[in-house]
TrEMBL record:
<feature type="signal peptide">
    <location>
        <begin position="1"/>
        <end position="18"/>
    </location>
</feature>
<dbReference type="GO" id="GO:0005975">
    <property type="term" value="P:carbohydrate metabolic process"/>
</dbReference>
<dbReference type="GO" id="GO:0004553">
    <property type="term" value="F:hydrolase activity, hydrolyzing O-glycosyl compounds"/>
</dbReference>
<protein>
    <submittedName>
        <fullName>Putative acid trehalase-like protein 1</fullName>
    </submittedName>
</protein>
<keyword id="KW-0732">Signal</keyword>
Amino acid sequence: MLHRLYTVLWVLTTAVCTDYTLVSNYRRFPDQYCCQPTIGNGFVATVVYSNRVHMNGLYNGRYGGSHRARIPSMAAISFHLPSNMSIKSQSFTLDVTSVFIRFAETTEFNVTQRIYAHEYLSRLLVNDISVVRNPGATKEDVTLVLTNNTGPTSEDINFKTANSTRPGVGYMFGNTTVSETETSGTLPVHMYWTLVPQNVTLSAPETSHTWTFMTSVSNSSTESASFYDMGQKSVSSGTLFSTHRDLWLHKWSQGRVDLDQDLQLAKAIYGSMYYILSSLPR
Ligand SMILES: *[C@@H]1O[C@H](CO)[C@@H](O)[C@H](O)[C@H]1NC(C)=O
Ligand SMILES: *[C@@H]1O[C@H](CO)[C@@H](O)[C@H](O)[C@H]1NC(C)=O
Ligand SMILES: *[C@@H]1O[C@H](CO)[C@@H](O)[C@H](O)[C@H]1NC(C)=O
Ligand SMILES: *[C@@H]1O[C@H](CO)[C@@H](O)[C@H](O)[C@H]1NC(C)=O
Ligand SMILES: *[C@@H]1O[C@H](CO)[C@@H](O)[C@H](O)[C@H]1NC(C)=O
Ligand SMILES: *[C@@H]1O[C@H](CO)[C@@H](O)[C@H](O)[C@H]1NC(C)=O
Ligand SMILES: CC(=O)N[C@H]1CO[C@H](CO)[C@@H](O)[C@@H]1O
């Protein structure tokens, strides 16, 4: 029962949302902002595919005007299938253990994209995109075009870019524009991220390939860089996702509400708990 719920879930927790079609059908990503899934770990969070990332404690504005500062998202990456490929099926799923998954199946290959806020390496937002060739499919290059929704320059933070000293990695940093009071300082933020290429290619002899893109945010350059580097090490050892997943499975094993009979209500309860748990630091 539990496992089944974990993997089928798409949650609508707000009464504001009127796009109820998603409860039974999640073949397309919801247009309404309120229906779009959020991923977070209590330190960093984003609405999937949106151009905003928020960091714990990072507010901009004086007194009542204080609001969460918008960090432009480097984690809103979309893949586009080659136009001559017919899509057999496609799905968008929020798995409460806790990862957003976009899956596309074509006659030649499958693509899986996972987006999550890492539960252990809590400064990281991770995107990974895997292409797996179907056995028997023609061995030819498969190129996926990528786009990212970084959005406009931040209205809250004066960002400057600098050399990250890591190949393929961008770095920018800045402070919020307006402090909360006359006497408090503005707040710093530092971000390292994997540069997103225009496309990725599964070359002819390969049967599968995974590309990982990370965004690391922190109020210090040292910390942001060190989380990025730790993430990179975990990618190399193949453990980045499993450490995240294991901590979430442990979290659910420590407490949850199971409900038989009413699947819809059971999903809503899991969903509500997911949103609470993903808003709290570990
Ligand atoms: C799809 O288009 C690419 C690039 O134009 C080409 O290399 C490939 O052979 C085509 N694949 C199919 C199945 O038509
Ligand atoms: C592609 O996805 C379909 C549907 O989930 C699955 O049956 C098939 O085994 C997958 N192919 C590969 C190579 O993973
Ligand atoms: C960035 O830093 C690296 C290492 O210090 C250096 O090799 C590289 O030339 C620098 N790149 C630019 C564009 O300054
Ligand atoms: C940014 O914030 C840090 C830490 O509060 C502070 O030391 C620094 O002076 C600020 N920089 C600017 C340009 O305000
Ligand atoms: C992939 O990106 C490279 C530049 O990185 C570009 O030269 C090439 O034309 C692109 N290919 C496709 C199929 O979009
Ligand atoms: C950065 O955040 C930590 C808490 O995560 C806080 O203790 C520290 O003072 C902050 N540093 C700056 C420069 O704002
Ligand atoms: C592949 C792609 O769309 N890359 C873009 C991601 O966003 C940055 C910042 O807006 C662009 O410079 C890249 O071209």
